[in-house]
Amino acid sequence: MEPEVVEAELVLPSYLSFKKVQMYEKYPKGQSRGRHWKHLKQIIQAENYQNYPPEEPNYVNIESPPSMHPSKKICDITGFEAPYYDPRTNLRYANTEVFKIIRSLPNEYVQRYLALRNAQVVLK
Fold first, then answer.
1. Which domain of life is it from (predicted)?
2. How far apart, in whole angstroms, are the C-alpha atoms of residue 99 and residue 75?
């Protein structure tokens, strides 16, 4: 090499804007890729809530009044939001395909679905 080039001590930036950044350069081995969220169980264990006074609000003893919003009506078969209900069986359904299935169910299965929702009908 020529002595002028060596003496100039050219320093190139480590990141050139026109080059694509490879994943291994962006996230070196052993480094997390993004924000790590803690679960409630991890927060409770880390905070040691047994030592707090019982009247101080925290994640464990927070009390709230019942919701003022009406509860969502969920389809008994699929679990989707159900805008309709069958007056004959009192099962909620989301669309016509589910309605056909509900009408073809025997009475014993209908009672089981209602029991899951705590809306059993006692026939005498």
1. Eukaryota
2. 10
Contact 78, 94 (CB under 8 A): yes
Give, for 85, the enclosing helix (H) or strand (E): strand 84-85
> Which positions ≥6 away from 59 have C-beta within 8 Å?
40, 43, 44, 47, 49
CA 88 distance to own-chain centroid = 35
Eight-state DSSP code of residue 123: -
Distance from C-alpha of 73 to C-alpha of 99, rounded to nearest angstrom: 15
Other residues' Cβ atoms within 10 Å of the Cβ of residue 122: 5
Task: Quote the CA–CA distance of 85 and 94 in Å, as a whole number.
Answer: 8
**pLDDT tens-digit map of 65-86:** 777 888 899 999 999 999 999 9
Question: Do residues 103 and 119 lie in contact, with contact meaning Cβ atoms separated by under 8 Å?
Answer: no
Euclidean distance between CA atoms 91 and 99, whole angstroms: 9
User: Is the pTM higher than 0.70?
Assistant: no
